[in-house]
Amino acid sequence: xxxxxxxxxxxxxxxxxxxxxxxxxxxxxxxxxxxxxxxxxxxxxxxxxxxxxxxxxxxxxxxxxxxxxxxxxxxxxxxxxxxxxxxxxxxxxxxxxxxxxxxxxxxxxxxxxxxxxxxxxxxxxxxxxx
Length: 130
Hints:
- The protein is mainly beta.
- The chain contains one helix and ten strands; from the N terminus they run αββββββββββ.
- The strands form two sheets. The chain has a five-stranded antiparallel sheet, with no helix packed on it.
- The radius of gyration is 21 Å and the shape is globular.
- Residues 5-21 have low confidence and may be disordered.
């Protein structure tokens, strides 16, 4: 075979072989507030959660209540025992203590939520649920 055909073919094959694996869409969290409140053994925690397009927070629960407020985009929430609900910017949802739930960006761009928790002091904030 001719070298002028072999070299380009080898370069093309190498380019496909070394393609990085597709990473899962990213979720980033920014801690905003963590403070003890007047309710014994409870604290408030507030976090901004940014979802890349298609990103999802898998099924989990918290050691207390959560109020999720969608800042931008569209987020689908699935709460244990309830129908899925999609919230858009300006809408909010109350998630009771210990209820397993998930959240997923269902819009075409970035989605963000402000998550406010009233939880047991020093407890693990997020517990994955299978």
